[in-house]
Structure formats: structure tokens, C-alpha cells
Amino acid sequence: MADIVQQRLEDRIPALEQLERVGLFTNKEVKSMLKRSTALEYKLHRTVQSKDDVITYIQYEINVLELIKKRRARIGYHFKREEIEYPIIHRINHVFRRATTKWQEDVQLWLSQVAFNKKWGTKTQLSKVLSSMLAIHPDKPALWIMAAKCEMEDRNSSESARHLFLRALRFHPENKKVYQEYFRMELMHAEKLRKQQQELEQAKIDVGEYNFSPEILSGKLAEVVYRDAAQKIKGAEFILSLLQIAAIFDFTKELQDTILQELQSQYVDDCMMWDFMAKRELDAAGAPELQSAKGRASDTDRREERCCVVYEEALKSLNTEAMWTCYVTFCLERYKRKTNVNELKEKRKERLLRVLQSAHDAELLQESFYKNWHLVKMVLQIAITATQCFSQSFEMWSFSLQTLVQLESTEAGHLFQEALKHVNPKVESLPLWQLQADWCMTSQRPEDTETFFQKGLLSLVPAVSSAMKEKYLEWSYKTGGYKRARKTFTSLHEHRPFTKAFFMKMIEIEKEQETPKMSNLRDYYERALREFGCLDEDLWMDYIKEELGRHGNPENCGKLHWRAVKTLEGESVERFTTQYTLLQTGHV
């Protein structure tokens, strides 16, 4: 073993000498790297190999590559890559090959090697890794799709991607996702050729005898894929998914028409086909661009009526619960769309009520829609009356308040106050406070919302008080930006009780800024750990990852690890140790 290790260390020396010679590393750093490499090599060549040792070795080598990249950018030196980076990349791939040979079933190892080769641009090696991975794991469709995409996007090889999809279909002849991605790939290939042809024509370049095939340019290969898929996989939903993919490309009108015709002829008894055909009327060419709101509303109403005509036609031959569900869902979605034109709002309401009544009369109305029917039939009076009759029922208060909020009723504010008087404050009041907070944030004046939050913060129920802090911080950021959010956080961060989400929200706000301050992030994490650090290992891990990030200081990670192990209690220590180890080995 010693001879092998010595040979591998000697193989490193030319690259290390180059690193020192060109000024990327100092002599002291090179010696330190050689010492660290020696220890890793001995671990790697032990009789009983450990996967963790292999991962640690690979991660160290990748870190060296990243550091070289940063040093090159800093001093502006971009030469001798063949003598410096290439041996390291070759060494990493060699270790990856040994690992994937020994632990073939570990898909994550394979994916790590694929990701490594994609990042460092070793396209030939990437293709070899993909082939080896698929030979071991041919039963996983997602890997075939990923490999084909790599060939198409990273190696720019449509032919290789096509071969991979065809091989995938031998193992998975009825897999919808494989067919969908194969179909998409052929359309992307046609689009790429069309762009190439256009660029050549614009540049007036003579390509000699080479001609672009009109069939390929028009998407005929994709049509072949579609026909094969349609024979093996039945169902309007799948055919519609292919149609939606084709619609992304602007040269597929003929293909879309073909798919649409076959969809209509073969799936007359499928409610999804009728649902799609009805909704197409919304996008059908209509009147020219109208300026007035009433004109646009009138045009929208005509389109929606045409949709209803299609649904009614469908119900003549397909009078089923599923078909009625599609029809009611469409009417309900249109009813919920906001409009400032009262005439359109009323027509949508009348249409929804009519369809609900018809479905009910046919005894094919889905159970869940009865609640929606209730919503649109004078719900204001019904909701208020219901809460008077069942004033101690939390479910009734909750349902009635949600109803009034959805309908934007002015009675909601008064009803919220009444609800809080009747429900059990310690057990049932929190959902009502949260609902009222959402309502105030979206529908009330800023001063009224501020008053509500101040009242919520003073609640004697800890769950309510802590939840309102989180909502108040969120609202402050939305209405007043970062400065107001900081001010709100500062005014609240000493007033218990808290939720973890309160601190995480402030961390999220800080990270959304153009130049987040690490000192502020540390303050937020420290305050959160003061409250939840004994049992929440995820909080410690988030803090450590922050220090490893662009704005952090990796040297602090060791101290945080030591503090976490000392602070956490019970099983949290073991879970933290596991997560930290995975982070160190690059698995997280």
C-alpha cells in the first residue's frame, strides 16, 4: 500500500510545483496540501474502504479546484490548465470510478460524478459516466431522461440524445414521462435546425450540397414519436400533455391540428378532452383590442358563453359526475376572477348558480360543490344567522368568517370581534386571529391594520401573541420595506414569547437585500438559538451553512459545531452530528 501511495503522491508533484511557480500558492500552502493529500491517500488505500473516506477525498480535491479557480480570477492568470487542473480532474474521476464500482447501487454517487463533470466541462468523460450509470440502473426512467438532456444540452448532440431515448423506451415502453421528454427533444432539435438555417440565410452563406430536410424542420420526427406514444399509452390527459408541449413551439401548427383532430375523434367519452375544448374558446380569436372596461367585459362574457355551449354539448353524450365537475369547476373559477364590471360579475354568478342547480337536479353534483353553492346564495345573511344559532361552535364561526372574507364583505370586521368573544381563547382563537390578520393585510387601511396588530401583540394567549409578531413583521416588510421591518424586529425581539418562524422571517428579509449584512444575520441566528437552540438541530445547521456561504466566515463553523453539541439535548445531538457529517462530505 505504501508504494502505491508514494507513487500517487509523486504524480502530484509537477502540478504542485506549477502552482507555486506561477504564484497561485505559496511554498507553505503547497507543503500543507501535500501533507493533507498524504493522509487522504493512506485512508483511501486501506484494506477495508469506507465510503465516507472516498467522499472526503473527492470533496477535498474539488475544494482545491475551486480555490485554484478563485486564485486565477484574483491574479488574472489563465494559463497551464493542462498541467494544473486537468490532473486533479482526472484524479477525481478515477476515485469516482472506484467508488461507483464498489457501491454501484448508490445513485447519489453517480449523480455527484455527473454534476462534477458537467461543472468542469469534461464532456467526453460525462458521456462515459452516463453510459456506465445507465448500464447499472436501467430501471430508473429519470436517469435516462437526465442522460438524454445532458447529451442534448451539454454535449449538443441530438443524435446521442435520440439513441438514449430509444434505449429508454425498450426498458420503459409505456412510461409517460419518457415519451413526453423524447417528444420535447425532437421539437427542440427541429427548432435548433430552423435557427441555424435562418442564421445561414441571413449571413448569405453557401452551404453547398447540404440541405435542411423540410420534414425534420416541420417536426415530422416529433410526430413519429407522438404516433408511437399514442398507440402505447391511452388517455386524453396524456395526449393533451403532448399537445401542450407542441404548443410551446411556433412552427408546430400542423402537428397541433393533427393531435387535436385525433383527440376529438378518439376520446369523445373522456371529460378531459371536452374540458380542454371548452376552455380553448377563451383563447379563440375575438374582437379587436377594446379600450373600455365594459367592452372588454362584454367580449369576455361572450367567450365564456361559448365555453358553456361546448360543455352543454358534451353533457348530451357524456352525462357523468366527472363531466359536471369540469363544468362546475370552470364556472366557479370564472366566478372567483376579480372584475370591476358589476354586469360581468352578476352574469358569472347567475351562470354558476344555474350550472350548480342543473348538476344537482341530475343528481351528479359532487359533494364538495354544495359548500360553494351555499357561498353564492345570499351567504351574508346565512353566515351571520348561522353564527347566532351556533354561537359556541368554532367550526361555524371559522366557516362563516372565511365566507365573508372571500366575498369581501364589510361585515367581516364586526363578526371577527364577535367570534373572539364566544370561542375558547386558549384553544380556538389562534386560527381566527390568523384569518383576521390575513384579511387586514389585504383589505384594510394601514392604520386599521396597525391597530389590529398592536392589539394582537398584547394578547394574553402566548400562541396568539407569538403568531402576531410573525405576521406583523411580514406586513411591515411588505408595506414599509427593509427599514420598517428592521424597526419592527428591534421593537419586538426582547418581548417573549416567540416562534422560530419570526426569526427565520427576518433572516429571509435580510438575505433578500442587495448586500445582506452578516453581522445582522448572526444577531438573528443568535437570538433564535437563545430561544430554540436546545432542541432544534436544523437551526444550528442553517447557521453553519450561512457561515459557509458567500458572506460568512467558514472559520466560525468549528465553534458553532462545538456549541451545538454542548447545547442540544437528547436525540437532537445525534441528528445534528449526522447532518453535520453529511455536510462535511458534500452530501447536503
From TrEMBL:
Major subcellular site: nucleus
A Gene Ontology term for the protein's cellular component: small-subunit processome
Top-level taxon: Eukaryota
U3 small nucleolar RNA-associated protein 6 homolog C-terminal domain span: 305-568
InterPro entries noted in UniProt: HAT (IPR003107), TPR-like_helical_dom_sf (IPR011990), Utp6 (IPR013949), UTP6_C (IPR056907), UTP6_N (IPR055347)
Compartments reported by the entry: Nucleus, Nucleolus
GO biological process: maturation of SSU-rRNA from tricistronic rRNA transcript (SSU-rRNA, 5.8S rRNA, LSU-rRNA)
MF terms in GO: snoRNA binding
A Pfam family assignment: UTP6_C
Domain U3 small nucleolar RNA-associated protein 6 N-terminal, first and last residues per copy: 9-91
Keywords per UniProt: Nucleus, Repeat, rRNA processing
Family of the protein in this entry: Belongs to the UTP6 family.
Protein name, entry field: UTP6 small subunit processome component
